[in-house]
Amino acid sequence: MRLRGRKGIREELEAQPELVILEAERFRGRWAEVFGNGRPIHVELGMGKGRFISQLSALNPNINYIGVDMYDELVRRAGDKARLSREEHGGDLSNLRLVRFNIESIERMFAEDEIERIYLNFSDPWPKKKHARRRLTHENFVRKYLEILNEKGEIHFKTDSRSLFEFSLNSFADMGLRMRNISLDLHADGPRTDLIMTEYETKFFERGEPIHRLEVVVGEKALQEHLKSLQTRKEKNEAEEELKA
Hints:
Elements lengths: L8 H6 L5 E2 L9 H5 L5 E5 L5 H9 L4 E6 L2 H18 L6 E5 L14 E7 L17 H10 E11 L2 H13 L3 E6 L15 H8 L5 E6 L2 H25 L1
Parallel strand pairs: 1-4, 2-3, 2-5, 3-4, 5-6
Antiparallel strand pairs: 6-8, 7-8
Helix pairs in contact: 3-4
């Protein structure tokens, strides 16, 4: 996808240093300083027009969010969405940054253990087999995510592409990663009110097309909490069965 932004777009982005970052490599290992606090950092890779990251950051002021895309025009549109979200939900933009950067070099933007969660929403499926290495859930990318995610690290992945979802399931499984909340039709019973839809997701839902979603548990603490919750659920089910007997 190539986007032609309007004239003067670069100057417009440069005039928003409180929200837009154009030289992300300067802040590698220093994103906590950028936000001025030690709160968790969640990142959307390939934010598109920014609806998802804008609404999420407005609703969760105690988490820092970074939206990343490589196109100036999309960063500009995301900035507009961010301000509209604040008008609707209140608050300020202090917990959000929009970054123009090529995800292929994500390890040059973040240091080891620097972020807590990665969102991959409707990434380009690159359907041709020869382009598999470009998919954002390919092992080469995932290994980079594992480096920059911390002990509570997770990857949340959504797509409308069945082939990409199957590829991703295999990619994560081959790397020995634990997956949870796997869904082949996320909104089968109606829109999930606990999750924010992207622009693409809304279109697909209105067409009746299934959305596929999963979460990957990466960090050691995240994995421990997940296993603990499974054990608690098992014990609860066993207790309920005993009461019925």
